[in-house]
Amino acid sequence: MAQALGLGEEIFIQHYTHLAANRAQLSLMEKEDGSCVLLSGNECLVYNARPNQCRAFPASWNVPGCPGMK
Fold first, then answer.
1. Global pTM?
2. Residue 50's closest CA among 16, 4, 7, 11?
3. Residue 69 near residue 58 (C-beta atoms within 8 A)
4. Helix (H) or strand (E) holding 21
């Protein structure tokens, strides 16, 4: 994703990720409305480099309490 944005890995990590709640991995940041920091309107800024969890959305997501999300 860093390469898709023309950034070095460290800069990408600093600006677009945070330590996940489990403190074992990084997670992409979210905007104030809860959307992905890499969304611009309805378009992904790194579409061709998006991670598998994004490629599988919404088919393999499990979001308790969210209609249509298992």
1. 0.72
2. 4
3. yes
4. none
